[in-house]
Amino acid sequence: MQRGPSFKSATEVEFDHSGKYRATVKAADKEEERDSGTIEVPDDVSNGLISVLLKNLKPGTSAKAHLLAFRPKPVTVELELVPEGSEPYWVASAEGTATRFLMTPRVRGLTGLVAKIAGNQPEPFRMWIAQGEAPVLIRFEGPLYLDGPEWRIELGAPRWKK
Fold first, then answer.
1. Contacts 24+ apart (CB under 8 A), 60-68
2. pTM (2 d.p.)
3. How far apart are the first and last CA of the chain?
4. What integer pLDDT is reported at residue 38 of this predicted model?
5. CB atoms < 10 A from the CB of 13, how many?
6. Coil vs helix vs strand at 4
7. 126-139, pLDDT tens digit by residue?
8. Which end of the chain is more exposed for a tag (fewer CB within 10 A), N or C?
9. What's the order of all strands across the beta sheet hosting 33-38?
10. Are 139 and 98 in contact (CB under 8 A)?
11. Strand partners of residue 20
């Protein structure tokens, strides 16, 4: 479920292990839209778990995963996770290094071609993962959901410039 002033539309989605789903989307000043059916959910769907994937990647490696979005028809989005470089940060006098990852979401197939022509492919976003024994997300820049506004979320303690 997503609703409230931060969202362009209220969305409620239910689905089960067999791939059956029901979705309702209500945008402001528009009729409620509903859809239901069955979708094949890729094994690597990671809605909400992207930072966990990044923390478990071997240094210097890339990966691909998938996200599901409902408009109300389901859309499978391929997500490419690529390390872009590293950046130093400081907590008090201790220096650490964070790997900056670029996540590039792409709608594939005919839907993706239409999205590309219409300029509706989702925008890339970034996450910074602190290196060490217990890698941790320390910064995020991008939308929190498909078609959402860009957010910057970061821990309060790290400084990015000395």
1. 66/42, 67/105, 67/146, 68/39, 68/41
2. 0.83
3. 41
4. 95
5. 17
6. coil
7. 999 998 888 999 99
8. C
9. 9-15, 20-27, 33-38
10. yes
11. 38
Using only C-alpha atoms, what is the Rg of the chain? 18
Residue 142 CA to its chain's centroid (Å): 8
Closest CA to 138 of 53, 57, 51: 51
Place of tokens 């479920």: 1
| DSSP code string of 9-68 | EEEEEEE-TTSEEEEEEEETTS--EEEEEE----TTB-TT-HHHHHHTSPTT--EEEEEE
For the chain, which residues make up each domain, given as ranges? 41-154
CB 141 within 8 A of CB 117: no
Coil, helix or strand for 117? helix
Please name the residues in contact with 138: beta carbons below 8 A apart, sequence gap of 6 or more. Answer: 89, 98, 128, 129, 130, 154, 155, 158
Q: How far is CA 129 from each of CA 42, 70, 143, 152, 155, rounded to the nearest angstrom?
A: 25, 29, 17, 14, 11
Q: What pLDDT was estimated at residue 84?
A: 96
